[in-house]
Design a protein that fits this description.
Blueprint: H1 3-28, E1 39-44, E2 47-50, H2 56-75, H3 98-110, H4 116-136, H5 147-151, H6 154-167, H7 169-172, H8 196-205, E3 207-211, H9 215-233, H10 240-249, H11 254-257, H12 283-292, E4 294-298, H13 302-305, H14 307-320
Antiparallel strand pairs: 1-2, 3-4
Length: 326
């Protein structure tokens, strides 16, 4: 934060508290010119105004909140760039990568600084770390249990579900049904494959799906014709002549989606025949995808969660579309 904005925040904060204190002092003094407890001469609907002072308990409580506020601002960061007497911080706000975050947390722990995020990570690891390992690894503690085996373990799946909600629900939803631009994980329509180990690879390493923009190559008419052909592939009623023209142009798309339009998991190219649309299946949405392209990024979680937690989440996700009782 620049010096200007630091001073701006400090002045406004302390000025507001000072103004409230001054108002409280002013209201505590009798300026009415009438003896305390006497009638003020005002009446409304049978109710008369009496010159009574502010209740003592109310004034003391208000002064207490002012003192508490000043003490809090002295002990903790809240006045611009001031770090607070205790040196507490919620987290290191300067990090730009997972690696920098880990180094910052380790340094905070080494220097015994009051970094709340680092403390919570320590507490969580101490409390739950052994549980994650017990559920993810076999009895020897050296080998990870198969994902399909974990998926049949009700206790492990409960933990996997909680981890999913904490880390994955922001994009895929708490019910894992996704939203526009984020895949539904319950419908068995997998971009990169739905096998247990493939799901784990996706979570561990992340994915980056690129659909190039075709407006410059196809032109507006070409985009419209390919859109018509693609919609027809999924069973829609379309203009046959326009679809035939689109089929001829679809050759540029076949490299990824296949000549039959059924996609290719190696590229993350979706099946265009199943009526499952990541970015919407309306004509307008499909045409926008072909025109402008799409860029989908699934972050890598191996450095954030670790392999034991990823193993549990993978089992939960795999179990959403598979009968684990078999």
């Amino acid at each position: 934060m620049t010096t200007f904005w630091s001073l701006w925040i400090t002045i406004i904060t302390l000025g507001t508290i000072a103004g409230i204190a001054a108002m409280l002092v002013w209201c505590s003094k009798d300026k009415m010119g009438v003896e305390e407890g006497e009638d003020m001469g005002h009446e409304y609907d049978g109710i008369r105004e009496i010159n009574n002072p502010l209740p003592k308990w109310w004034s003391y409580m208000f002064w207490g909140t002012i003192i508490f506020g000043l003490l809090y601002l002295f002990l903790y960061p809240g006045l611009g760039n001031y770090k607070g007497f205790l040196g507490w911080q919620s987290s290191n706000q300067t990090v730009r990568s997972v690696e920098e975050s880990k180094l910052a947390i380790a340094k905070a722990q080494e220097e015994l600084r009051l970094d709340q995020y680092a403390k919570e990570l320590d507490d969580a690891q101490a409390k739950f770390g052994e549980t994650f390992k017990t559920l993810a690894y076999d009895e020897s503690g050296n080998n990870l249990r198969p994902i399909t085996e974990i998926a049949a373990d009700s206790e492990a799946i409960k933990v996997g579900q909680r981890l999913f909600i904490q880390n994955c629900a922001q994009c895929h939803g708490s019910d894992a049904r996704g939203q526009l631009g984020y895949p539904n994980l319950t419908d068995n329509a997998w971009l990169y494959g739905g096998e247990a180990e493939t799901i784990k690879t996706t979570i561990m390493e992340g994915r980056q799906g690129v659909m190039p923009a075709w407006i410059d190559s196809l032109g507006k008419d070409g985009v419209r014709e390919v859109t018509t052909y693609v919609l027809g592939m999924s069973g829609r009623k379309v203009n046959a002549k326009e679809a035939a023209a689109g089929k001829q142009r679809f050759v540029v798309c076949a490299a990824c989606h296949g000549t039959d339009g059924k996609g290719n998991p190696a590229f993350g190219a979706p099946d265009l025949t199943d009526n499952t649309w990541l970015y919407g299946g309306s004509r307008r949405a499909v045409e926008a995808t072909i025109t402008h392209g799409r860029l989908g990024v699934m972050p890598a979680w191996k450095d954030i969660l670790g392999e034991d937690k990823v193993q549990l989440i993978s089992a939960y996700v795999w179990g959403l579309g598979n009968d684990t009782d078999k």
